[in-house]
Amino acid sequence: MKHLFKSKFFKQLFPILILLILVKLLWFAVEIIWLSPTGIGHDDEVSGKSLYYRVKLTPNEAPAPRKKQVVKIAGSIKDITLLAIYNSADTTVITVEYKKKTKVLSRGDVINGFMLEGAGSNFATFSKDAKTYRIDLIKSKKSSSSRSSIKSTSRPSSSPSRKPAKAEGEVVDAGDHKIVDRSLLDHYAKNIDDIYKNIGITEVKKNGKLKGFSISFVRRNSPFAKLGIKRGDVIKSINGQEINSYNAAFEMYKNIENIENLTMVIQRGKEEMELEYEIN
Amino acid sequence: MQMVKNIFITIIVFWFALLVFMPKQELYFTLEKELLKQDIEINEQNIEEGLFSLNLINSEIYVKGIKIATVEKINIFTLIFTTNINMKSLILDDSLKSFAPKMTDVANISYSLFSPFIVNLEAEGNFGLLEGNVNLNERKLRIDFSETTKELDSIRSNLKKDEKGLYYETSF
Fold first, then answer.
1. Smaller CB count within 10 Å for chain B: N or C?
2. Among candidates B9, B23, B28 on the partner chain, residue whose Cβ is nearest the Cβ of A31
């Protein structure tokens, strides 16, 4: 009788087939016991909607017609202390201290009989009786006890100019809010490592889920310390956007170049506080 | 001699079967779960399982919920003792342009059991070429750049220079 299959060949093939089946069974067992049958789909985090939106009521493009104010001829320029300056191509806003009260003035406003004419990077010019007076910006809050240097000149006030870009800038306390130098913000946006040298930010988790971020340390005399934030503060929201995820924090970081005003809500102990910043 | 031949054939068949029958997709899903513990997510549009490799098409990579990169194709190829991950058209998010080159045409990550503490990196893009390695034992990363172009200017401040040229070094 003639054999259909060579028995020798079949004899050799049989163990190989057994081995293949064993490997398949081995993988099957591994798959059942350890491996995940389904993948993980990324859920696009629905970033919390802003609690409110900032609306610029006085757009720079078309300033409202200003009423001519009657200049009261009284007082001295020495009574005015220049705290902060905001300068753009078409807007000049300064913060001054007068009679222990902080006031915000824009071009044309009058204080103590002096009309604001304009401002440079570190000074503001006022006019009174066809004379121009210059007040220099105080260096920092620490030196606020020293008087602003005042020069009286007859030359017309200079046109407003922008601050030159530099790696480091100042944080100036303007009473109810703080003015942060744009160059300072740009520096930290580009050098993220520098942030973590000055401030520690840790996750706040509840039941293993990220709920927000808290400040673990603030380096003394660093710009972050001047911002008024302290160790233990919990950042609740920035400009109405709840900061309860890395995505929300990163979105804020990505848009930092376009931000002109910043309102940060923090929780300090049981108290909730609002910190206001102006990016100049 | 016949005995040696049989053992050799058995090993080859076993290794071949191990690769072919490997549940690649399920292994990838398990890897995804492990990466998720480190807050890394890969969101792929399509998975193609080959005989020896796995292809992820149009993947998005998220770290801590932040989308950091998109990759047109990721090819994961393993021979068990060596593994290669090849990426084609890796585009980093715009916000990371000051940390790493935005556009990478081809990137290759390789790992071999023969040097278990070293992960090798190679990439080519409009910034030039890069070669580097991650030392898992010393927890150090070093990347050497060559044939660099002006596209690398945005991250040049993070780079150091030695006799070989520009390099990036960090520890973790």
1. N
2. B23
A255 touches chain B (CB under 8 A): no
CB A252 within 8 A of CB A243: yes
**Which pLDDT score is estimated for A158?**
39
What is the DSSP secondary structure assignment for residue A63, as one 8-state letter?
A: P
Q: Is B79 a domain residue?
A: no
- In the predicted structure, residue A125 carries a pLDDT above the cut 70: yes
Class of domain A171-279: mainly beta
**Least reliable range by pLDDT among A34-38, A41-45, A64-68, A152-156:** A152-156
Chain B contact for A258 (CB, 8 A cutoff): no
Beta-carbon pairs below 8 A across chains A and B: 67
Nearest CA distance, A71 vs chain B (angstrom): 51
H or E element: which one contains B77? strand B66-78
Q: Model confidence at B142, in pLDDT bands (50, 70, 90)?
A: very high
Is B65 in Cβ contact with A39 (below 8 Å)? no
A23 contacts chain B (CB < 8 A): yes
CATH of A77-153, picked from 2.30.30.830, 3.30.460.10, 3.40.50.670, 3.20.190.10, is: 2.30.30.830
Separation of alpha carbons B129 and B107, rounded Å: 10
Residues of A in contact with B41 (CB under 8 A): 40, 42
The answer to whether residue A205 neighbours chain B at the CB level (below 8 Å) is no
pTM for this prediction: 0.63
* SS3 state of residue A89: coil
- Please name the helix (run of DSSP H) or strand (run of DSSP E) that holds residue A225, with its range, or none: helix A223-226
Residue B94, domain member (yes or no) = no
Q: How many angstroms separate the CA of residue A189 from the nearest CA in chain B?
A: 10
Strand-pair category, B53-63 with B40-49: antiparallel
Domain-located, residue B90: no
Check if the beta carbon of residue A71 is closer than 8 Å to that of residue A61.
no
Prediction ipTM score: 0.83
Cβ(B50)–Cβ(A232) under 8 Å? no
A111: closest CA among A150, A82, A147, A140? A82
User: Which positions in chain A touch B36 (Cβ < 8 Å)?
Assistant: 40
